[in-house]
Write a structure and sequence with these properties.
Blueprint lengths: L7 H13 L4 E3 L1 H16 L5 H6 L11 H11 L6 E3 L7 E3 L1 E4 L2 E4 L1 H13 L7 H5 L3 H7 L13 H18 L4 H8 L11 H8 L1 H4 L6 H12 L9 H6 L15 H9 L2 E3 L1 H9 L8 H21 L3 H16 L19 H4 L18
Antiparallel strand pairs: 1-6, 2-3, 4-5
C-alpha cells in the first residue's frame, strides 16, 4: 500500500462503504442519540477515571514522559490484541486474560501492562531494537509467564513474537533505532500530504503490528495514549510534549475492538443479524476480515463520529470512556450480581432494562493481531 492511499479521506470512504452495505449490523439512530445524551450528561460531572491511577502505577507503566516512554509504548501497544482466552467450559466459554505478576493478579489490559513492565524492570532490554529483532519464543514466554505456574495463557504467542521482531527491525531500518524519529517526521500530524503522518507511518511501515487498514485501531490508540499522558502529573520532558502533540485532532477516529461493540449492542445502538447473534450467544469464532467483522468495526467507527458530534466531546475523551465502559463495566456486568458494578450509563441500557437477551451475548471473538 502506497503512502498516497493512506489518507484520512480514503480511510473514511472505505469505512462508509462498509457501513452502507452492512448486512449483519444496523445502527439504531434513536438509540444512538440517546447514548450521545447519556455521554454528554456524564461528561458534565465525570469523576477522575480509574485509568489515571493505573497510568501512574510503576507496576503498569512508565512514570515519566520522555524518549524512552515513546519507545516503550510503540513496543507495548503492538501487544494489545486477543486479550482473552478460552476456559474449556460451557459457561463462560471465554474470559479476560489474567496473570499473576509480582504477587498481584491483574486482568485484561492491566495484565499485559504488568507483564511488560516486569520484564523492563528486570532488565530485559525491550526498548533496544537489536534485542527486539532477535527475540525468541523462550523470551516471549518469559515476558508473559504467570507466577501461578504452567505455560503462559496469553494466546497467539507466535504473533506476539513476530510483532516484537518487527518493531525492532523497522526501527533499525527506517528510524535510526527510535520511535522519536518517526514522530519528528510526523511533526504533530496524524496525516500529512507527504505520507509521513504518525498514523500513516505506523500503518505503512509496521504492517504486522499496525497495518490494520482502514481501521488502524492500534495506531490510533497508540497516538491517543501518548497524547493523553501529557495530562498526567508526572515528570515530562519538553521533547515529549513537542513530539506527542496532535495538531490535526479532526483527523482522529475511534478505536474498533471487541469490548466497545459489546457495549453498543447492549445499549441498543447495534441491531444484529441472526448469524451474528448466534456467534455472540454461542461464543464461536468470527473469521478475520469476514463481512461480520468488517461491519461491526466500521459501524463502531461511525458511532464514534456521530456521538462525538452530538455530545460535543473530544475523540480522545470518547475513546477512553467507550473502552472503559466495555472492558470494566459491561464485561463483568450481570443482572444476577447482587452488587452490580457501578455504571453511569445503566439507566439507559436496553439490555439491562428491557431486553435481557442482549445480556447473554458475549463480545465478538476474532483471532486477529489488531485488537
Amino acid at each position: 500500500m502506497s503512502a498516497a492511499v493512506i489518507t484520512r479521506a480514503a480511510m473514511a470512504a472505505a469505512v462508509d462503504e462498509i457501513v452502507a452495505g452492512a448486512q449483519h449490523v444496523s445502527i439504531n439512530e434513536e438509540r444512538l442519540q440517546s447514548l450521545a445524551q447519556s455521554v454528554q450528561d456524564y461528561f458534565r460531572h465525570r469523576p477522575v477515571s480509574d485509568l489515571d491511577g493505573n497510568a501512574v502505577n510503576p507496576a503498569e507503566a512508565p512514570v515519566v514522559n520522555d524518549r524512552d516512554t515513546l519507545q516503550y509504548f510503540l513496543m507495548r501497544r503492538a501487544q494489545s490484541f486477543v486479550i482473552w482466552r478460552w476456559t474449556g467450559q460451557t459457561q463462560p466459554a471465554v474470559e479476560a486474560f489474567d496473570c499473576q505478576v509480582n504477587g498481584v493478579l491483574y486482568t485484561g489490559e492491566r495484565a499485559v501492562n504488568a507483564c511488560i513492565m516486569r520484564a523492563v524492570n528486570e532488565g530485559v532490554p525491550l526498548l533496544d531494537p537489536s534485542y527486539l529483532s532477535s527475540m525468541t519464543m523462550a523470551d516471549v514466554e518469559h515476558v508473559y509467564r504467570d507466577e501461578r505456574g504452567g505455560p503462559p495463557t496469553y494466546q497467539l504467542l507466535d504473533r506476539r513474537l513476530a510483532k516484537f521482531r518487527e518493531v525492532g527491525q523497522v526501527l533499525s531500518d527506517r528510524y535510526d533505532g527510535h520511535m522519536a524519529n518517526l514522530l519528528e517526521a510526523a511533526d504533530g500530524q496524524l496525516f500529512r500530504s507527504d505520507g509521513n503522518g504518525s498514523i500513516q507511518a505506523l500503518v505503512r511501515e509496521f504492517p504486522q503490528c499496525y497495518g490494520d487498514y482502514p481501521f488502524a485501531k492500534l495506531a490510533v490508540t497508540l497516538m491517543t495514549a501518548l497524547y493523553n499522558r501529557r495530562d498526567l502529573d508526572i515528570p515530562t520532558t519538553n521533547e515529549y510534549m513537542r513530539l506527542t502533540r496532535i495538531d490535526d485532532p479532526e483527523n482522529l477516529f475511534g478505536p474498533t475492538d471487541y469490548y466497545i461493540p459489546m457495549f453498543l449492542m447492549r445499549w441498543g445502538v447495534f441491531d444484529l443479524s441472526d448469524e451474528f447473534n448466534a456467534h455472540l450467544a454461542e461464543r464461536t469464532l468470527i473469521d478475520q476480515d469476514s463481512d461480520i467483522e468488517r461491519e461491526f468495526r466500521a459501524c463502531t467507527l461511525h458511532v464514534f463520529d456521530r456521538v462525538r458530534e452530538l455530545a460535543g466531546v473530544s475523540m480522545a475523551e470518547l475513546d477512553i470512556e467507550f473502552w472503559y465502559q466495555g472492558a470494566f463495566r459491561c464485561r463483568p456486568c450481570s443482572p444476577a450480581d447482587p452488587d452490580p458494578v457501578p455504571c453511569p450509563h445503566r439507566s439507559g441500557c436496553l439490555a439491562w432494562n428491557q431486553d435481557r437477551r442482549r445480556m447473554d451475548l458475549g463480545w465478538p471473538l476474532v483471532y486477529t493481531p489488531f485488537y
